[in-house]
Automatic annotation (TrEMBL):
Residues 259-279 are annotated as: Disordered. PANTHER family: UNCHARACTERIZED PROTEIN YECE, UPF0759 PROTEIN YECE. It comes from the Bacteria. This is DUF72 domain-containing protein.
Length: 279
């Protein structure tokens, strides 16, 4: 996600053309969740524009299409996967992971389908799997089974941490909506690979979001000291402050590890008194 109605004019220059928005986002953050790919595989031209707008070390975590994960549940998906990977080819070197987000009904009984699917993914791609079935978190046997399958494929388990969201009753319309849609699962912070990926969902109140990510500061710093290369995405129910919050998390990590590379300087906004032009 690199566009949001509340970002232009506040974090990003207003009135950017579609082919410039990702480039502006990439001056704020060095990684992005490619969520739109779940709903439709983009054209190759579109993906080529993503490559043009981002530096070589930018990280894309692209979600696999809905027909692959939710409709066919990873079975008989060679054709849609081939079409998807052909479209993604322009950013193959920047695809940090293929994000395999599975439906909440995908449980331990289907782990075999996941194992077979992961064996067929080209080795040039890294996979990161997000599960939402409660059994993987409550049943030790199910959790270990999933870890073995992921470990065999060199794939990561993506935690979606919603504990801050559910720590207190919702206080905004966006939070109330998130309460009805987001999974309520325990926090999980065990990395399986050298490239752990975390999805963190806080609250619309900044102080609650910051308080909720404290455990992740310790975890991310420890991973970096172990030589891992983690990626953490910060969300809130309305996502209005997500860019600023992501940079704040990065700054808090750098305060503990000054050797960590800084994020790029954000693209400057036009001065308020700058005249508008048509061309």
């Amino acid at each position: 996600m690199w566009t949001h109605a509340k970002w232009p004019g506040r974090f990003l220059p207003p009135h950017l053309a579609a082919g410039e928005r990702l480039g502006a986002y990439a001056t704020w953050c060095n990684a992005v969740e490619g969520n739109t790919t779940f709903y439709a595989t983009p054209s190759r031209d579109t993906v080529e524009s993503w490559a043009r707008q981002t530096p070589p070390d930018f990280r894309f975590v692209v979600k696999l299409p809905k027909p692959v994960t939710h409709e066919r549940r990873l079975a008989d998906v060679d054709e849609p996967m081939r079409a998807f990977l052909e479209a993604m080819a322009p950013i193959e070197s920047r695809t940090h992971a293929l994000w395999v987000q599975l439906p909440g009904s995908f449980g331990p009984g289907e782990v075999g389908a996941l194992a077979a699917f992961l064996r067929r993914v080209p080795r040039s791609y890294r996979c990161a799997v997000e599960v939402r079935h409660p059994a993987f978190f409550a049943d030790d046997h199910a959790g270990r089974l999933l870890e073995r399958v992921l470990d065999a494929a060199g794939a990561e388990w993506v935690p979606f941490d919603t504990t801050a969201l559910f720590a207190a009753p919702p206080a905004s319309d966006a939070e109330r909506d998130a309460w009805t849609k987001k999974p309520r699962l325990p926090r999980r912070s065990r990395a399986l690979t050298g490239h752990p990926i975390v999805r963190y969902l806080g609250r619309d109140a900044t102080e609650r979001t910051v308080e909720g990510w404290r455990p992740w500061l310790d975890t991310v710093v420890a991973w970096l000291r172990e030589g891992r290369s983690p990626t953490l995405f910060v969300h809130t129910p309305d996502n209005a402050d997500a860019l600023e919050l992501a940079r704040r998390f990065h700054d808090e990590v750098r305060a503990r590890l000054p050797e960590l590379e800084p994020l790029p300087e954000p693209m400057p906004l036009p001065a308020e008194d700058e005249p508008l032009t048509l061309f």
